[in-house]
Design brief:
Layout lengths: L11 E4 L5 E4 L5 E7 L5 H19 L2 E7 L3 H6 L10 E3 L4 H5 L6 H10 L1 H11 L12 E5 L5 E6 L9 H16 L1
Helix pairs in contact: 1-5
Amino acid sequence: MRLLAPALAPALDLVDIHGQPIVIGHSGRLTLLSFFRDAACPFCNFRIYELTNRHAELSALGLEIVAVFSASQAEVLRFAGHRPRPFPLAADPTSTAHEIYGIERSLWRKLKAIVSRVPTLLKGMRLVGLAGLNTSNLMPADFLIDERGRIVEAYYGDDAGDRIPIERVEQFLSRRQYRHAA
């Protein structure tokens, strides 16, 4: 079942791929909580690449990014974590966290992304190779969470490559910055 704003973000006690605890919910920080499909997903790896490139800018505006993959720690390390990332990557091999946040499955929406997002698919395939062809039917989702642990926006992807636009994340941050400056 989908979560909606302004619900309280369900608390998650996760461990990143290096064994460090990650607390989701009442961290007192603005958070982009991103749920990813498999660690070998080309769309997911391209998004990790984008978030890595934008991290310094988004972090300077007060954003914490947490990426949760429906994969084992070894798979996350092999694909998304093979390079250092400036934000935590968590493995959710049983998809428990994905289920808590209402992450959906759809073969049709997975195929829709493969057909309609060819340039992104190809860019992602360059990052993960042929392993990117064997992925699950999980859909992506992103949650913008405020300092009090409330979901400000829940964005469930329409297809396997659909993510919250970075511009929406920037708007979320600019509204917060404006409120704190006033």
